[in-house]
Write a structure and sequence with these properties.
68 residues, mainly alpha, 0% strand, 75% helix, 3 helices
Length: 68
């Protein structure tokens, strides 16, 4: 529970945040795996590397904001 206090979170808010990241990574990785085997299947623009980078930056900003 120390981790929750350090990040100024409740158990439920931490659960939602961590699960949203986990599901987001699973979803993105599935598209990249399919693309790896079948290069003709394009990775959707909203899930490509640039969009993923932006998504992670937003998650980090949210996490950093919670601490303050």
């Amino acid at each position: 529970m120390k981790h929750l206090k350090e990040n100024n979170e409740t158990y439920i808010s931490h659960f939602k945040f961590a699960c949203s990241l986990g599901v987001g990574f699973l979803y993105r990785s599935a598209f990249f795996l399919v693309h790896g085997f079948f290069p003709m299947v394009e990775v959707p623009k909203q899930l490509n590397i640039d969009a993923t980078h932006e998504w992670l930056n937003k998650a980090k900003q949210y996490a950093d904001k919670r601490k303050s």
